[in-house]
Amino acid sequence: MRKRGAALALLSLLAAAGTMFGVAQAAVPAATLGTLTVEDIAKKGTDVNAPHYTTSAGCPSDADSYNLFIYGPGVFEPGLIGTTTTDVGIAHDAGFPIFQGLSFKDIAVDHQGTVQPGRYDIVAHCVDGFSQEVKGTFTMPLWFTDATHYTVTDPASPPTTTTTTTSSSGKTSTTTPTEPPTSDPETTTSTTESDTSTDPGGVAPTDTTPPGSGGDTPSNPGDKKLASTGVPAGLLTLAGLGLLGAGVLAVLVTRRRREVARSAWPE
Question: What are the start and end residues of every segment in region (Disordered) (predicted)?
Answer without folding.
Answer: 150-228
